[in-house]
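Review form for a predicted model. The reviewer records the input and the model, then writes brief findings.
Reviewer: anonymous (R2)
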Amino acid sequence: MNLETRKKNRVPPVRDHQLLEELSRSITTALFCELPVEVTIFGPYQNERLMGKIERLDKQQRLLRILISQDEYELVPLDDIIKIEFQNQSEME
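Model under review:
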């Protein structure tokens, strides 16, 4: 199987109940305590990492708004999030 075929066939990892609970707790903690995070996101070709602060959770559209810099943000689908790690404030600056 060549590289192009593998990229097209890449599927997101299975997220079990325990992982979903962990992600939910991390989102809630980061949001309410305004903690910086590194979010790992499943991508069609490779996983991506975003560092910033979770600014808003839209439960209806299932999106996280992550503030990357003072005037830049990313909207991330909840279903694409693989991992959330808390970062030191100094790593964000």
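Findings: The first helix runs from residue 3 to 8.
Further findings: The mean pLDDT is 88.
Recommendation: see findings above.
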